[in-house]
């Protein structure tokens, strides 16, 4: 028999960026908020002098334990899905701060085109440009409507950057200037400028200088140590929820964080949520936390899984194209990168930061003519200097043996003579790409795992080749002596790392006919349930998702306060 606790105003499930922002904003308005986090407590002191690549980058210290809960994957509905038993394609964060602790800090705003992709594509190219099986749709909100929330997120986190020449209009500049330029970054800028492209410094959550945000949170500047991705920041220079928004919520005295609390069901009655049931993983006890408002702010897969297990919303049916929960799963196409090998020049690539880099958007969104191309959208192209750590960075030219004396010699020789120009390609939604509950495999509690059905399409293959060729041409202009780049994109496979930019499953939109939430992230089928994060994205853009996740969270917090006052569906 589960123990029932006193009711709270709001309960949030998952205390990462979404949960931290919601907690901060609502507690400042006087609401009592309980945050349930299934992982452990975290603080900056945990990472003092812990530049341990083996522990964090290869043994996944900050990630979910796959022996207790994982995902299953299949490329199509005709084959059986199998569990992901070791990390590969993406990494699932665990613990206070979630994936916001181990991210790199690349903080792009989505383009105006991204939010109105279907209508803008049809307007320019006609309906036939969109394949019949592609289920892209407008978000139900425009860039201009979301811009004030982008601005608020950037000021809270202290984003360092300069204006994107292809970006939407900004209400104010970035709060801190761009990061330092390394010789490699300068080479990229000069080469792309000669190619008549428009480079700009990557927007970075790694502070370029000391900064105090509007909530009074002060943080120190980045030291360019190169330990960002898969690591917590020992300086607090990388914006994460633990050093930005969670302290603000804690200071109000109205926020209670319960770690080691695995939420397993959203409880509901009469079309509204009544609270959640979670298991205290330290004792095995089941606990009910009643609440007036339930906010799901966990990772994409868990948001979808909780709704499906709880029976809230209609599950997506790919054969009929009906239902919303699990619909429009999308990922990202990272396979269009190129590596350049320089015989006469060396670079100090061991130094860096997660978002130290320079980008171009000339081939992103609809910034170029797609009339004669067999794909829509595109991706950002960047040269990033994230820190070439010793274990995972030993790129060698194609044709080098994968072991033995020649491999070792070339690994050492090219360690400081290699630069990568990479792309993050968009991912369009398709009718047959979706999330549902696996009928066979279960987690440690006996609950079904989430199942992914996904593969690359012709859209992805054409786009990846196009972007890879552009990356190669930039490296050629930079003076690389040998260049390796993608010639053909094969099937999607779950084993090699690509990105943790999974999206969709609880998508937002203008109508309950084709979406799960409105543009405040409020569920159509349960008005006091708000679901946020990248699960809201109807398809994925050619950027990292975090800035858009943050902006949507600030808007959702505003919506929750409106709902608290008046009730009903927000408009």
UniProtKB/TrEMBL annotation:
Region described as Disordered: 158-182
Domain Glucose-methanol-choline oxidoreductase N-terminal, first and last residues per copy: 221-330
Domain Glucose-methanol-choline oxidoreductase C-terminal: 439-553
Superkingdom classification of source: Bacteria
Record-listed E.C. numbers: 1.1.99.3
Top EC class of this enzyme: oxidoreductase
Gene Ontology MF, one: gluconate 2-dehydrogenase (acceptor) activity
Keyword annotations of the record: FAD, Flavoprotein, Oxidoreductase
Species annotation: Paenibacillus harenae
A Pfam family that the UniProt record links to this protein: GMC_oxred_N
Protein name in the entry: Gluconate 2-dehydrogenase alpha chain
Keyword Flavoprotein: yes
Homology family: Belongs to the GMC oxidoreductase family.
Residues spanning the signal sequence: none
PANTHER family xref list: LONG-CHAIN-ALCOHOL OXIDASE
